[in-house]
Every structure is written in structure tokens, then in C-alpha cells.
Design a protein that fits this description.
ten-stranded mixed beta sheet; alpha/beta; 41% helix; ribonucleoside-diphosphate reductase activity, thioredoxin disulfide as acceptor
């Protein structure tokens, strides 16, 4: 093919990239610079108790989380489990991929010499093993194995108005689903049901053919797994069957409700859900500027025959737009794709228009094409001084985009047409994850001008650097085969990117520094591209990064904000931990809060799941901690504005859903769709909470079944003839006549007081007396009454921990500085009193769970990275610092132990401590933990593999337990 000849010419010239080491160290292999440990990976379906996977003694870096190692072991290690052929170390996995890429780079003339190839291999290895980036899942599945070397996750197919083409669509889509990927296509070439066939009969229309494809997808599943296939179906807004297409899934949702209420199991994956159609695809309407202007103006819009292009029906544009929004309100489908915007940024219009996208809407290119993806972990480039290392980020992009292009040289594809198009146009999809965590750590609100300007600058730098390297590669191994006929259009789009970069409004030092490098990168793109052309028709997208996000230990996926402020984390050796996001303490420190204030705020978040009314937190800082869900959830337009900030700097689009609350109106959805078009987005999908019935419940049954069970239980209870009533009364444990007591004088915000506390013989607190205000005053009387109430409660068995958790962090005057070295700042007198009581009467472990430490313990943390005493009588501290062996450590029992276990970052430095507490509920994932904390349901499906609740990731869902996704990643 043309591309192969071009590559060989490049190799024959003796050109090649000369590479300098940036990340790795000369003379030291990246593996030798980190500590490795052995772990056991055992995965169970928590609902059935069945062990679904087991592999013991796998090898990973000690700083990789349990989730990351579990997901990589179960998803990416190749070979039959229990045989010698099975991979057991991350080293084997990375070597399998990186060495394949390096060899292909040498064979195809990408490197100036063997030394440069070695540098490339070491740099790529360093970036992967240290979780700076990841390729998309098919690379890990296939590269370096006997299987076909498929590297792409995203495919766009094509179907024409003939039965041969339609049946071929079914076949090609089936093979893609079988391989575990997803595909999208536009059905608008198929004649409508309002047009005649050449035989004189009436055409069936595209919606009827969607039924066959939907049944095929539901039968084949995806990758042989139990989850549904990922697919996108698009129809142009001027197609005569557009109204039928718009209403397909909304009508089916009505059917689901009716069948559910009749007692059928209509949950996703339920026994009866297969009777419902069109559930295996995302639907999108491809709208034009002409249609959107007609909506604005309230004018008519023509629907056109597929064969002749003549208008055969006229509709009211606003009425059709209303029906689209109404259907989306009812069932989240259809989304919108903005055709003129998409094709205005198209680098290959001479070859053909862009008519469709992949299932998650981020890849938009020619029909019969594919895209391989890779994503960077943005938080890795945030330095200790909380500045973004833009230069290092750009260097990483250069290495990654080079590797991605090399992969096309050896890749296999599911169809010949897709292979030809991909080799001729070499579409790439570099992107990033952890934007939400990065902005929070930098003290920037996701829905703020500062947050958007930072996101825009980073995205611009990423794509500018990618096209710069693409132009450099074109000078070495030649431009893509389709470049010559599209050269002017491609260069025009490059100028559009540069112009968009020029109008970015920087608001602070950090985004200004990144933007400056981006500006230089785009200048180099124009200059080098003019001379060499470009190696790649596309360079960047923003994908969901579901499974690979876990591989990189990212807090947030893709362009998404944080899902919630509290995370569910698995621990080495078993057990789990509820932790407050690690970026929160860093953000608070960046904002100027002191350590004790940070501890109090984090403890509040751990209990409540949000920052509203957190002690000492300024209200103007609330926006920095806004999340996708919860008390401070982002407004719908906050999502739209962030996408609009990044979109001008992407070759493709963005996988993201605009979340709306359950009480959102159809008018609000209309506004989201309209504003998305005005702001220049290429696609928009919405999801209104609880709009879909077909979501699995924890009991695996439908609502009708649950109601029937509840009635049966009630009937059984009514039949009970005898009820034995047992009354449990608390017993008061009075203090001895002579007891040990201590009196503490204190000052809080200038107000003086005294506290006397008395203890039982075993040392537990039994009474408290407070002296505050003049004798006989109202304040003194209230304090006396309060003291009696607390003392009686203690003697009747109310744990001191309960009082401490309830009364610490109360905020009222007097407040401020105290004269107690252990409690330097206090939100109120109550806050001080119960912190002091905790320090005097609670164990270290109990105080740690509450985030309360003495001055000596805080000093120890500064010196050693741990609050815990170096030597414990139980020997637990010694056990914690033992070197890792092939046997897992015992489950930890306290937050302090958890912190001690995971205190190193990727560079071997001490990581910041994050207050944590053992998870005592039934939660298995962050989504379930969020539901427990807030009492709010997360409207997402259960994982078909391990039974836990998934959480949103872009336009898809991802399982924290096993890494399974509902999309194409």
C-alpha cells in the first residue's frame, strides 16, 4: 500500500528520531529504580460468594494500589491461569508491549540508531510502570501475543441503502463485538419508510433494520462477556423517519414500566429484559446549523428523500427539537451530534464527510476507520510546589504519540476496509485522565474560569505537541497516504486550533506558563507541517478512561470532575478502607489552611461526604470541592462549559454525559442542547437521574417482585399469634465515692474556663463539670445542666467517642486560638472541650479514626510521616514495616495502620497522610459508599462480573471492583 512504501522510503533514507532521556536514567533500567512485591489476587462475586478469579504471587510495584494490580492481573495478563504460560508480573506485561513497539519502530525507520531505540524503550517503560500514562485496553489484550495485534478500541462502520450492505453491517458489527470493542455508524443512507423501492413497494426504513442489529448485539454480547455490547446509532435530523427514530427508546421505556408493574423482571440483565428492543445502542441525532437556526427562529424544516434529496415533508423545527428533548428526558436518548461543527474541524474533507462516531462519542472520523487511544495521568505532572510541569508533560506526549503511530505499522484490524482507511489516515487519540483531581489539588474549581482556562491550556499543549511530533515524523517516515489530497484542509484546521489557542484568556501564573508552551507548540506545528506535512490525520480525543484509569490509580476519569469526596479503597491482604480523596488535604494546604484545620475539615468530609458547613472552611472555597454527585453537585452547564473549554483543542470530541437531577425539566434539556451547539461542542449526551427503569437493584429482582415479597412478609407477621416482648434497659454504672479526677484550665478565643473530669477505676471517663461564666449567670446554668446530661449519659454507657464525634467541629463564638499546645485552634468551646477529653481518655487508635492528635504526634508526623509511635507494645508497628513477601500481609485494623502501609509515592518520597476510617457498612465500591453516606441513590448498573455498583465514566460506566466497563474501552 501507499503507506508501506512511504515508510520504507523513510527507513531507506537513514533518517530517524534522535531521542534524549527525560524520565529514565542512563545505566539503570526503570524496573531497578522501584521496589517490587508479591500479592495474591482473588476476586469474588460478593452477591453469590463465588470466586470468579484467583492468581497468587503476582508481582507489582509496591506503590500500585490493590485495585490497580487486581484489574491488570484479571484483565490484561495473558495465558491460561494455573499454567506456566500465564503472565505473573507487571514486568512481563509491559515488556510484551513495549518491546513490540520498539522493534516495529526500528524495522520501520523511526529511530536514528539502536541507542535511540533503547532510549525509547526505557522512557516508555518508565512512563508505564510509574503510571504516567496507559494505552487503551486492546493494546494490553493483544500486542505481543499470538492473537491478532488489534490496538484500536473505537470503530466507525458504514452502511448503504442495499440489503447486501445492511447484512454486511450485521456481520462486521458482530465480529467487533466478539472482540470486545464497540462500533458506531450512521443509518441515514437507508431509505425511509415513506419512500418507494425500485420494485414499487415501500421501504422498511432504518428503524426496522435497527431491530436486527440490536438483537445481534444482545445475543453476541461483548468480548464473550455478560455485559451488553457498545454501539452507537446515528440518524440525520433531515431523514424522513427522524421522529420514529427519536421515539424508539422512549416507547420501549414505557413498555419496560408496564411489564415491570405486571411482575416481570425488567432490570438490566433481568430474565425478561430481552423482550424489549433497542437497548443495546446509544442513539444520537445528527443536527445541522440550518436546523438549529430554525429552532431558534421558530421556522419550518424540511425532511429530505434519501435518493433524490428533495423535501418530502416539512416539520416545525421547534416541535421536533422538543420531541428530541422530551425523549432524552424520558430515557436519556437521543443525544445530539453537531454535524457542521464536526465537519468544520475535519482534516480530510476531500476524502469524505464525518457522519458518525464510536459508541462513546469521542472518536469522529471517516467511515470504516478506527482509532487507538492512550491517556496521560495529569496528576503525575503536578510538582511538590503545586505547579504543573508543562515541559515534562510535553516531553511525555512526544514519546507517547510516537509509540501510538508506530503501532499502526504492525496492527491488525477487524475488516479490510477499516485496515485500509486506518493505515492511510493513521488516526490517533491521545487524551488524559485525572483533570478533576488536578484542578482540585491546584485549588481551582471545576466550574470556574480558572479551572476552565487551565484545562484549555493543558489540552491545547497536548494536541499542539502531538501535531508537532506528527509533522516531525512526517519528515522521517512520510505523511499519511491521504495527506496530499487533503493538505490544504488539514493545514486550515491546524490554523483554527492555533487561532483558538490565541484567544484563551489566562487568569493566573500556572495557566499562563502552560499556555506559553502551547503557543510555541502551535507555531512549530504550522511551520513544520508546512514543510513536511503530517503523519496523522487526527491526534487527540478525550476518552472515558474507565479500566485504564484504574490501572493508573486515577481519582477521576477523563475530563470528569470527582465523583465524590470519599472513596472506597481495597487494602493489601484483604479488607477495605473508607478514605477521603488524597487531593483534598493537598488542596486545603494550597489554599492556606493549617494542619489542624485540615484535619478537622477532612474528618467532617469523612463523616458527611461533602464540605457544606465543614469547620473552618471558607464558603468561597466550596466550589473547589464540587463533585459530580452529592450536596455540592455541579450544575449541568458547569459540565457543558468545561467541555467547551477543551473542545477547540481536540481532533475528535469528548466522551462525557451532562448529568441532570431527577426534577430537571424538558426545557432545561433543551437549553443544554442549544447552549452546547452555541459553545461549539461536537456532541452532547444527557442523563437525568432515575430516568431509566432498567437499572439492576441490589436484590436482582424487579419492583413488582420486591413488592410481592414485602406483602408476603407483612402477611407472615400478621399471622403471628404470640409475641414475646423483651425490654432491654440500660444500667447506670456509678462512679466510686473516691475517684481520680483532673482539672484543666483553658482559654478559647480569649474566654477563660475550667473543666474537671472524673474517671472510673478502669480509667474510663465517668463525669465532666464545666465552669464558664459568672456564678448564677444563664451561661453558667446552661453549662451545669450540660455537664450533668453528659455525665449521666457516660454512666449509662454512651461511648465517649460518640460525644467527641458529635461535639467536635461545632462552630460558634467564642472561637479561635487556645492556650493548649495540643489544640491550638478551636471552632468553639464545645469543640475544644471534647478534643481535650479525647486526648485525655481515648486510645491512639480511637483518636486517629477521629483525626485528633497531640502536639507530639503531629511533630512525629512531620519528622517520620506517621503519627503512630515508632514502637508499640503489641509489636504492630514492627510488623507494618516488614519487607513485602510473596504472602500478603494481614488485613489492617486501624486507619493509622493503613496510612503506614501506603506512604510512598512513585518517586519513593513520603506521601501526604490522608485521614481514613475502616468501612463498616455493606459498601463494596465508592458508588455504594456514597449512597450510604448521603442516602442518595446512584443511578448506575450493577457489574455483571462481580455484582458491585458501577460508577459513571464519560458516557459509559466502570466497575471499581473488577474494571469491567459498559462501553468500548
Amino acid at each position: 500500500m501507499t503507506e508501506t512504501v512511504s515508510t520504507r522510503k523513510g527507513a531507506a533514507k537513514g533518517k530517524g528520531l534522535k531521542l534524549e532521556r527525560v524520565f529514565s536514567t542512563e545505566g539503570t533500567h526503570p524496573y531497578d529504580a522501584i521496589t517490587w512485591e508479591r500479592r495474591d489476587v482473588v476476586q469474588q462475586n460478593w452477591k453469590t460468594g463465588e470466586t470468579v478469579f484467583e492468581q497468587r504471587g503476582v508481582e507489582f510495584p509496591d506503590f500500585w494500589s490493590v485495585n490497580a494490580s487486581t484489574i491488570v492481573t484479571t484483565k490484561y495478563f495473558r495465558g491460561a491461569v494455573g499454567t506456566d504460560a500465564r503472565e505473573w508480573s507487571l514486568k512481563q506485561l509491559i515488556d510484551r508491549v513495549v518491546k513490540t513497539y520498539t522493534k516495529a519502530g526500528l524495522d520501520n525507520g523511526y529511530f536514528a540508531g539502536d541507542a535511540d531505540a533503547e532510549t525509547f524503550e526505557h522512557e516508555l517503560t518508565w512512563l508505564l510502570v510509574n503510571q504516567y500514562f496507559s494505552f487503551n485496553s486492546p493494546v494490553w489484550f493483544n500486542v505481543g501475543t499470538p492473537s491478532p495485534q488489534q490496538v484500536s478500541a473505537c470503530f466507525i462502520l458504514s452502511v448503504d441503502d442495499s440489503m447486501d450492505s445492511i447484512l454486511n453491517w450485521y456481520k462486521e458489527e458482530g465480529f467487533i463485538f466478539k472482540g470486545g470493542s464497540g462500533a458506531g455508524l450512521n443509518l441515514s443512507r437507508i431509505r425511509s419508510s415513506k419512500e418507494l423501492l425500485s420494485s414499487g413497494g415501500t421501504a422498511s426504513g432504518p428503524v426496522s433494520f435497527m431491530r436486527g442489529a440490536d438483537a445481534s448485539a444482545g445475543t453476541i454480547k461483548s468480548g464473550g462477556a455478560t455485559r451488553r455490547a457498545a454501539k452507537m446509532v446515528v440518524l440525520d435530523v433531515d431523514h424522513p423517519d427522524i421522529e420514529e427514530f427519536v421515539m424508539t427508546k422512549a416507547r420501549e421505556e414505557d413498555k419496560i414500566r408496564a411489564l415491570r408493574d405486571a411482575g416481570f423482571d425488567m432490570d438490566l440483565g433481568g430474565a425478561d429484559i430481552t423482550s424489549v428492543q433497542y437497548q443495546n445502542a446509544n442513539n444520537s441525532v445528527r443536527v445541522t446549523d440550518e436546523f438549529m437556526r430554525a429552532v431558534e427562529d421558530g421556522t419550518d424544516f424540511g425532511l429530505r428523500a434519501r435518493g433524490t434529496g428533495e423535501v418530502i415533508e416539512t416539520v416545525d423545527a421547534r416541535d421536533l427539537f422538543r420531541k428530541i428533548s422530551q425523549a432524552a428526558w424520558e430515557c436519556a436518548d437521543p443525544g445530539l451530534q453537531y454535524d457542521d461543527t464536526i465537519n468544520d474541524w475535519h482534516t480530510n474533507p476531500e476524502t469524505g464527510r464525518i457522519t458518525a462516531s464510536n459508541p462513546c462519542s469521542e472518536y469522529m472520523s471517516l467511515d470504516n476507520s478506527s482509532c487507538n487511544l492512550a491517556s496521560l495521568n495529569l496528576l503525575k505532572f503536578l510538582k511538590d510546589d503545586d505547579t504543573f510541569d508543562a515541559a515534562l508533560f510535553a516531553k511525555a506526549v512526544e514519546f507517547i504519540i510516537t509509540a501510538m503511530d508506530i503501532s499502526i505499522c504492525f496492527a491488525d484490524f477487524p475488516t479490510e476496509a477499516i485496515g485500509d482507511t486506518t493505515r492511510d489516515y493513521r488516526q490517533l487519540g491521545i487524551g488524559y485522565a485525572n483533570l478533576g483531581a488536578l484542578l482540585m489539588a491546584m485549588g481551582l474549581g471545576y466550574d470556574s474560569e480558572g479551572g476552565r482556562s487551565m484545562a484549555a491550556a493543558i489540552t491545547s499543549l497536548m494536541t499542539g505537541t502531538s501535531y508537532k511530533r506528527s509533522a516531525e515524523l512526517a519528515g522521517i517516515v512520510g505523511p499519511y497516504a491521504g495527506y496530499a489530497r487533503n493538505a490544504e484542509a488539514h493545514k486550515r484546521v491546524m490554523r483554527k486550533h492555533q487561532a483558538a489557542n490565541d484567544v484563551v484568556r489566562v487568569l493566573h501564573t500556572e495557566d499562563g506558563r502552560v499556555h506559553k508552551l502551547a503557543t510555541q507548540a502551535w507555531a512549530d506545528v504550522i511551520k513544520t507541517g508546512e514543510r513536511n506535512g503530517f503523519r496523522n490525520a487526527q491526534a487527540s480525543v478525550l476518552a472515558p478512561t474507565g479500566t485504564i484509569g484504574f490501572m493508573m490509580d486515577c481519582d477521576t476519569t477523563g475530563i470528569e470532575p470527582d465523583f465524590s469526596l470519599v472513596k472506597f479503597k481495597k487494602l493489601v491482604g484483604g479488607g477495605s478502607m473508607q478514605i477521603v480523596n488524597q487531593t483534598i488535604p493537598r488542596a486545603l494546604k494550597k489554599l492556606g489552611y493549617q494542619q489542624e484545620q485540615i484535619e478537622a475539615i477532612v474528618a467532617y468530609i469523612a463523616e458527611h461526604g461533602h464540605v457544606v458547613d465543614a469547620p473552618g472552611l471558607k464558603s468561597e472555597h466550596y466550589e473547589i470541592f464540587d463533585t459530580a454527585m452529592g450536596a455540592r453537585s455541579l450544575k449541568p452547564m458547569g459540565h457543558v462549559r468545561m467541555m467547551a473549554a477543551a473542545q477547540p483543542f481536540l481532533s475528535g470530541a469528548i466522551s462525557k454525559t451532562v448529568n441532570l437531577p431527577e426534577n430537571a425539566t424538558v426545557e432545561e434539556i433543551e437549553d443544554v442542547y442549544l447552549q452546547s451547539w452555541k459553545l461549539g461542542l461536537k456532541a452532547t449526551a444527557i442523563y437525568r437521574d432515575n430516568c431509566k427503569v432498567g437499572q439492576p437493584l441490589s436484590d436482582g429482582g424487579g419492583k413488582a417482585k420486591k413488592d410481592a415479597a414485602d406483602k408476603a412478609d407483612a402477611a407472615a407477621a400478621a399471622e403471628t399469634k404470640v409475641v414475646e416482648k423483651v425490654v432491654y434497659a440500660p444500667v447506670r454504672k456509678r462512679l466510686p465515692k473516691s475517684r481520680t479526677a483532673r482539672t484543666t484550665s483553658f482559654t478559647v478565643g480569649g474566654a477563660e474556663g475550667y473543666m474537671t473530669s472524673g474517671a472510673h477505676d478502669d480509667g474510663t471517663l465517668g463525669e465532666v463539670f464545666l465552669k464558664l461564666g459568672k456564678q448564677g449567670s444563664t451561661l453558667a446554668g446552661v453549662m451545669d445542666a450540660f455537664s450533668i446530661a453528659v455525665s449521666v449519659g457516660l454512666q449509662y454507657g454512651v461511648p465517649l467517642e460518640t460525644y467527641v464525634s458529635k461535639f467536635t467541629n461545632l462552630r460558634f463564638e467564642p472561637a479561635g486560638l487556645t492556650d493548649d499546645p495540643d489544640v491550638r485552634m478551636s471552632q468553639s468551646i464545645m469543640d475544644y472541650i471534647f478534643r481535650r477529653l479525647a486526648l485525655d481518655y481515648l486510645s491512639f487508635e480511637d483518636r486517629s479514626a477521629l483525626g485528633i492528635y497531640s502536639a507530639e504526634e503531629r511533630q512525629r508526623h512531620l519528622e517520620t510521616g506517621s503519627y503512630e509511635p515508632l514502637v508499640e507494645e503489641t509489636g504492630s508497628a514492627a510488623e507494618l514495616v516488614e519487607p513485602a513477601t510473596s504472602s500478603p500481609v494481614e488485613p489492617v485494623e486501624t486507619s493509622a495502620e493503613f496510612i503506614e502501609l501506603e506512604t510512598k509515592d512513585t518517586h519513593g518520597n513520603e506521601a501526604r497522610e490522608v485521614p481514613a476510617q475502616m468501612s463498616t457498612g455493606t459498601a463494596k465500591t465508592t458508588a455504594e459508599l456514597f449512597e450510604q453516606l448521603t442516602g442518595t441513590a446512584v443511578d448506575s448498573p450493577l457489574c455483571m462480573t462481580c455484582g458491585t455498583k458501577m460508577r459513571p465514566a464519560g458516557s459509559c460506566y466502570v466497575c471499581e471492583g473488577c474494571g469491567s466497563t459498559s462501553g468500548c474501552s
